Amino acid sequence: MNRSGVAWLGILPAGAAMAVAMTAAAGTPRITTAQSDYVEHCAGCHGISGSSAPAPVPELRDRVGYFMCNGEARDYLIRLPNVAHAPIRDSGELADLMNFVVFSIGGKSVPDGAQPYQAEEVARLRAEPLRPGAALLARRRQLVGDLIRTCDAPADLQEFYAGQAPESREQQDSRAGA
Amino acid sequence: MTSQSRTERFVRKLARGTSRRSILSRIGLGLVSAPVFPLLPVERAHAAKDRSVQAKTSFARHAQTTDDTKCDYWRYCAIDGSLCTCCGGGIHTCPPGTEASPTSWVGTCINPDDGKAYLIAYRDCCGTADCGQCYCDNTDRGNQVYRPQENNDIIWCFGASSMEYHCSTAVMVGAAE
Amino acid sequence: MKKAKCLAIVLSLFSAAPAWAGGSASPAPVPEVEESDVAVLPPAGAHWMFAYFSFRNLAQLIDGDTGKQLGGVHIAQLSNIAFSPDKKHIYVAETIWSKGNRGTRQDMITVYDGRTLKLDHEIPLPGRLLAGDRLNTFSISADGRYAYVYDMAPASSVIVVDLEKRKVLPPVEIPGCALAFAAGNTGVVSVCGDGSLAVISHAGGKAEVTQTAPFFDAGEDPVYDNSVFDAKSGKGYLLSYSGRVYEVTAGSGSGAQIAQPWSLQEGAHMPRAETKPLVVNWLPGGQQPVAYDAATGRLYVLMHKGEFWSYKEAGEELWEVDVATHKVLRRAALDKPAMSVAVSQDKEPLLFLAEPGGAIHIWDAATLSEKASAASMGPSHFVVAP
């Protein structure tokens, strides 16, 4: 934080800087807009570090990058309703957020040569979100099946988080409404 | 659970709200639908994300930064429930015998000392009965369950070993950009 | 003194002994002046309602004409409750754990007999959302055949329950949407995070889902989860934080129609409220801020003077609004602020108003004057008899 943090305190009037130093806000690291958007709109459920295991929420850390392995899975991430409908109107800003999620949080799971999302691409995809009635869970299962077969994704990518015991197919089907 | 105390706190909070309202009514006498304070000509992209000084809510204008056991402490701008600071825990610490939920929701509150917006994770402590102390229900930029990531009525104990709600913390994550 | 009295009773028993020694029937060892028994309710009245607080375990059944408590039904915390349309059953959608605060989670609809309030049967559920103060996460179809339960696991779905066959049908996924307002006999309306509605139709056994175009700004001016919907007519009114009213018609066929929104404030000859900060307006507020009388087409809304983002503030006034003309017909000042409002669905409607501390005021809707009162255990919600 140091350099940007100091610069940030430096532009405040002396009195205000004193007050900051005395509150819990002191020493708060400066974060990027993409990080801030991630925390505000995603991190509650997915975890500030990209994992909220053992909550029944897809773990992003070192896993979400596998979705960049093929076009369908890449599109799916943007078409998820909470991504497509995120209260971020500028699709460039949303692209920055999703590139942070995929490349920073996704870490080692990103395939070599994966290209970042572009604003126009995000604008096009978010206009076609997964709609009510779409079998979201079945769709995810099919896409992840492909990633496991063709992209070396681990078998537990079908589960919410690494190391989770596989759910029985029967349970999954009943939840998917299949 | 000790909802008697929840009710009492609720009533007390309401009393506080009422007096604030009557002050408002006095200021706003004859000004219903007119600005309380002069509005600066600021173009607002969207109110829910507006963190400018001009967009300060009633809560933000009256918030304090010294006592985190009171409902008007600045980080509590959208908290709903018992304050863990009154239950044996702290602002980011769960009381003994409880478990910090791995999930939460995130709000933005303005710190009156520097006028800046900060990201606050409202993380519930779960696993035992409602604490019943220091009940608060603040609503800055709070939304409904169809926007779950902005809703403070959901029991945010997903992933904890028990869904029983005890109290809420307000964890600082960083400055909102 | 006490001993002497006991002795006297024992003696009198002995002296009575010869009277029953030779009889053929074996009479009670101790004659009982009064017998303990359990009351059975008369057929449900149109002025009956349940009052309950999300964090207490009794839903009180109250007769609105007198304010008297007629009985009660056990509810787990964060439950939903409903009458069957024929009032013969009471449904509680609830969640418990095998060891109280831990152990195995169990979600179910618990069905009680409407006259004895005794447990009739249970229908296990695959899950349900746990949230405080929500009315429309559970509803019953107009004909009483189906129940709808909103689940967030955290993927969103509506669980359709066949109450007659006591069977859960496959859940219907509604990505990005929430809530389950029953519309007609086989329709369900949900509200979506992009400001649209999802409409489920499960006529003919197969669920079909359509989505309307977005029509409200969910980030700037959200509509209340606790808006009102009449399953019989398929008409509902979604109320926004700023006091915009969206009339929704659904339930016959697929889809939903949404009328042009109108403003509560304009109906009271004021400029419409906006979402701008630092502006004081009359705004809706509370935890159950609006009620709908389907027969008269009147909305009853709890209103307070405040700034935007005060959507849970208790009401200072009750506004009566005509949905046909959009006019505010009457404004009644409340002696004590109210968090919840409901209205009975009959020819002589009663209004129910709950204070945050639990006091309940029962008004004659024709005169807006108090008729009875009751006490409940906190900031209560109401579910009125159909």
TrEMBL record, chain B:
SUPFAM superfamilies: Methylamine dehydrogenase, L chain (SSF57561). Pathway: One-carbon metabolism; methylamine degradation; formaldehyde from methylamine: step 1/1. The keyword Signal applies. It is found in: Periplasm. Pfam families: Me-amine-dh_L (PF02975). It comes from the Bacteria. It catalyses: 2 oxidized [amicyanin] + methylamine + H2O = 2 reduced [amicyanin] + formaldehyde + NH4(+) + 2 H(+). Residues 64-174 form the Methylamine/Aralkylamine dehydrogenase light chain C-terminal domain. Its EC number is 1.4.9.1. InterPro entries: Amine_DH_Ltc, MADH/AADH_L_sf, MADH/AADH_Ltc_C_dom, TAT_signal. Methylamine dehydrogenase carries out the oxidation of methylamine. Electrons are passed from methylamine dehydrogenase to amicyanin. Belongs to the aromatic amine dehydrogenase light chain family. This is Methylamine dehydrogenase (amicyanin). It comes from Novosphingobium beihaiensis.
Automatic annotation (TrEMBL), chain C:
It is found in: Periplasm. InterPro entries: Host-pathogen_enzymatic-act (IPR051200), Metamine_DH_Hvc (IPR009451), Quino_amine_DH_bsu (IPR011044), WD40/YVTN_repeat-like_dom_sf (IPR015943). Residues 1-21 form the signal peptide. Gene3D superfamilies: YVTN repeat-like/Quinoprotein amine dehydrogenase. It holds the Pfam family Me-amine-dh_H. Keywords: Electron transport, Oxidoreductase, Periplasm, Signal, Transport. Belongs to the aromatic amine dehydrogenase heavy chain family. PANTHER family: DIHYDRO-HEME D1 DEHYDROGENASE, PROTEIN NIRF. This is Methylamine dehydrogenase. It comes from Novosphingobium beihaiensis.
